[in-house]
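Incident log, support desk, overnight shift.

02:14 A customer reports that sequence design results differ from what the structure should imply. Their input is reproduced verbatim below. On-call engineer (initials T.W.) acknowledged and began investigating.
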């Protein structure tokens, strides 16, 4: 689906009319192109203390022009607010008011990234108030920014520092065009690299100077529901980043699936993921051809919408079977198999419906909230063991699934986010590619929303 309104308001006269009438004026988002510079213009690093200094040094090492204060008349590509030492709400004013100045001179598609500690890791009420306060302020900044700019946060869990490999990986993701449709979100990072992770050095190299354009080179990834929509884009994006892709979908989608597999130089596997032997067939295929399964993306999903009052068992059961029961069964079998890598990544598709609920989607929301529950519980069992599992929760994404929404509702749904537009499948795929990379080694049990800060839910 194309968003004709977005195209229209980005031409001169209709843009002026929309402005005069106070209508939404979504901007064309800055999306990733391999080899893009981290920042074309200077980046402000506000905040004091060793953590802020060290982070500013890292950015300098990435060949970024770093400023510690906003300079008159100078545009900024991004502002990084380091508040890792915030101990009371009074500590927020300095760096956040400086951020306010930076917001005035951010380039279109600019970025704000806050780095701070988790309120969950303190029992001191003033410290927790300061940390939680940053969360509220940054969510509000995200709602205020225009021109396709975004604001997100990196939340350091106990022991993590501003320059850990995963902190830097998350920073790089948020600064880049890969995070175009991620807005008002917070990614928790744990510091100590888990045992068995392919080495801190590798992770650091992946986020430091000379970042490889193919961070997933040598990895084998399985993507379910890959014949079309978001799944097809995930397959393309993982392949672009160097992964060998095994594209899975139902036999009925065989032709489209083969086209995707050919396009990405991967293989196609016609499997209904609700079949009891689905995981065994995938393991046999991957084990036989490539030896190791590194990345699993549980993308296949269906909707069978009805108000609960009108819901029948077949609609309910079908959604639960495809969207969550199959994932639970497959994960159990993957995790028990020597083919699944000791540093393996599982990334599962949730939905903002699973966070906020959605009228007519009690079955779908149960399945997607179920994904979130599954991811959190499974992640706890992975802690420190080298594997990770995370979820990505898309909001309104332009696909066949959302093309079924009636036109007026669809128009409204698009504008109900801070970025005033729907996301593209590639936006979801970029978040998944990031979570699959070494740079995200310390991200586990997280639900990353790719929703343009949709008004639905938190
Ligand atoms: P889509 O309907 O375009 O594609 C889904 C794919 O999954 C299809 O190719 C389909 O054949 C496949 N599939 C369905 N059942 C299967 C099964 N039993 N075995 C194997 N493959 C199966 O959907 P999409 O919009 O690309 O969504 C992809 C994922 O993202 C889904 O999990 C969906 O719930 C989630 N999501 C989408 C949106 C959105 O706005 N489009 C929002 C939130 C979440």
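02:41 Re-run completed on a clean worker. Output:
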């Amino acid at each position: 689906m194309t968003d004709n309104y977005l195209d229209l308001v980005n031409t001169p006269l209709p843009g002026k009319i929309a402005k005069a009438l106070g209508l939404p004026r979504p901007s064309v988002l800055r999306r990733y192109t391999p080899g893009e510079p981290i920042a074309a213009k200077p980046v402000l690093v506000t905040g004091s203390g060793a953590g802020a200094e060290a982070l500013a040094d890292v950015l300098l090492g990435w060949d970024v022009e770093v400023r510690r204060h906003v300079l008159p008349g100078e545009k900024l590509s991004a502002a990084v607010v380091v508040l890792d030492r915030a101990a009371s709400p009074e500590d927020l004013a300095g760096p956040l008011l400086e951020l306010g100045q930076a917001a005035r001179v951010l380039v279109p598609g600019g970025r704000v990234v806050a780095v701070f500690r988790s309120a969950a890791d303190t029992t001191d009420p003033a410290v927790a108030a300061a940390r939680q306060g940053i969360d509220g302020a940054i969510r509000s900044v995200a709602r205020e920014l225009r021109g396709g700019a975004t604001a997100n946060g990196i939340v350091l869990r106990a022991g993590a520092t501003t320059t850990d490999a995963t902190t830097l990986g998350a920073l790089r993701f948020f600064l880049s065009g890969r995070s175009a449709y991620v807005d008002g979100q917070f990614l928790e990072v744990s510091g100590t690299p888990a045992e068995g992770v392919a080495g801190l050095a590798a992770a650091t190299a992946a986020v430091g100077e000379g970042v490889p354009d193919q961070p997933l080179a040598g990895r084998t990834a399985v993507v379910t529901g890959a014949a079309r929509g978001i799944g097809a884009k995930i397959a393309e994006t993982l392949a672009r980043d160097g992964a060998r892709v095994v594209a899975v979908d139902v036999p009925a989608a065989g032709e489209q699936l083969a086209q995707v597999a050919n396009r990405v130089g991967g293989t196609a596997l016609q499997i209904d993921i609700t079949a009891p032997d689905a995981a065994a067939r995938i393991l046999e295929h991957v084990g036989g051809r490539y030896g190791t399964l590194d990345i699993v993306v549980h993308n296949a999903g269906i909707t069978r919408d009805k108000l609960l009052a009108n819901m029948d068992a077949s609609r309910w059961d079908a959604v639960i079977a495809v969207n969550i029961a199959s994932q639970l069964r497959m994960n159990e079998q993957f995790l028990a198999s020597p083919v699944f890598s000791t540093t393996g990544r599982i990334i599962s598709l949730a939905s903002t419906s699973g966070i906020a609920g959605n009228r007519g989607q009690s079955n779908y929301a149960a399945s997607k909230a179920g994904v979130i529950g599954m991811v959190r519980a499974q992640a706890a069992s992975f802690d420190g063991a080298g594997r990770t599992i995370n979820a990505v929760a898309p909001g309104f994404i332009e696909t066949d699934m959302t093309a079924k929404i009636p036109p007026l509702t669809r128009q409204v749904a698009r504008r109900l986010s801070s970025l005033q537009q729907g996301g593209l499948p590639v936006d979801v795929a970029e978040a998944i590619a990031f979570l699959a990379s070494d740079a995200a080694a310390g991200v586990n049990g997280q639900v990353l929303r790719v929703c343009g800060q949709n008004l639905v839910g938190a």
